[in-house]
Structure prediction request, 114 residues.
Amino acid sequence: MSGFANTPEPPYYAVIFTSTLGDDDNGYDAMGQAMVDLAQHQPGFLGIETTRGADGLGMTVSYWKDEASIQAWKAQSQHMLAQKNGIERWYSHYELRVAKIERAYSGPYGRSVG
Prediction:
């Protein structure tokens, strides 16, 4: 769960999930890894980037081929259980945003990838 995602040429979609962990994060890391492993086998999955600071603020960006792939992932039964646990047990707050990626660049040289 580290490093940069190897995404294709745009367009594609990003699901940006920002969260703050609450006091009880028991089981959170294992569930997070299980969700990454599961997502990698979903149709339309392109990659993932994730980080969490010592203060509990974290961000995960998953990349998807299209909106249909995102909807299928949202409705996947094991992912739905993880979402429920997140809401009820782990997160004190979260924000989820979906964006269409139309351009992408990498660096440090500003090489365009789309």
